[in-house]
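Lab manual, section 2.4: Encoding a predicted structure.

Procedure: take the sequence of the chain (364 residues), apply the prediction step described in section 2.3, and record the output as structure tokens. A sample record is shown.
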Amino acid sequence: GADWAQKLRDVLLSAAPPGLDQVTTMMCGSCSNENAFKLMHFKYMEKLREGRSFTAEEMESCMINQTPGTPNLSVLSFHGGFHGRTAASLACTHSKYIHKIDVPLAAWPVTDFPRYKYPLEEHVRENTEEDNRCLAQAEEAIANSEKNGCPITGVIVEPIQAEGGDHHGSNKWFQGLQQICKKYDVVYLIDEVQTGGGPTGKMWCHEWFDLEEAPDIVTFSKKMLTGGLYHKADLRPKQPWRIFNTWVGDPGKLILLDAVLKTIKKEDLLGNTLATGDIIITGLRDLESRFPQYLRNTRGRGTFCAIDCDTGARRDDVLTKLRRLGVHAGGCGEAAIRLRPALIFQPSHANIFLQKLEDVLLDQ
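Recorded output:
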């Protein structure tokens, strides 16, 4: 434990998203998001207090979950998003009812995430209108939150809505959302729990978006082996112990992550992911053109790819038959087949997958 701080610098901060130099480790993606929400709320309340200390009333009332110590604040999320299974993260999750039913949750605002028509190059006008519609919804929710009595202190969004159906947003969408956050001084959180660690061909998916500056917070887990959050320095709490957990994440995983990051660099696995992803996307588009009655909406970044079937029942049947042929693929959303191969997945593996998928489609 004596070298813990140095390990954080050498391992986690070596992989930090450009522009973020603060990191806190957590056990999982859900608790990473939960604690990121706390940073949002801290910033808002600190601004209201104008630097003064906590009052006795605030300290006493928070112990029984009453105002003013427990303020009525909220986080904006998006239809189709998935951010975890703990209380606040679940309040921001809108992918499947089974995650949420029977659980008392905060009635926080939720607005639309873009739903595009594909191929993108053939639907530029419609998809631009969709971006504008969804951005207008988000801005309206933020602008009205103060007068509605539950101010929005931050926005949480996935770079790709994975669990909800592999829905993508354009660079314009993510840039516009950042501009709205800056306009209203709310925190911009990008949840990279699923997309972080290289599967899109960059270490962090939001690096594709050409943002004006780094997001305020980026949460991570899964491929990064330990959970946690990167954030800007101005979000660091002034008081100790406000963001903490028993094991400070999973310190032993940093040893493993160190080896993973070095291997990614040594073997150029991000480059491999891009090359393999190109083969997958090209192959899926070819299959879509030959089986239009079954397939549609090919999309992806790197090997983080998906394609829709005409029905959810068809998707389930295709996945079952693929498993019988030794191929494990997943489903998400209503009818999507999603691919989540490891970074060592090669072009030769992609061609095997595409052949197996064709075999299954010929058998429909």
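Check your result against the sample. The two ends are 57 Å apart (CA to CA).
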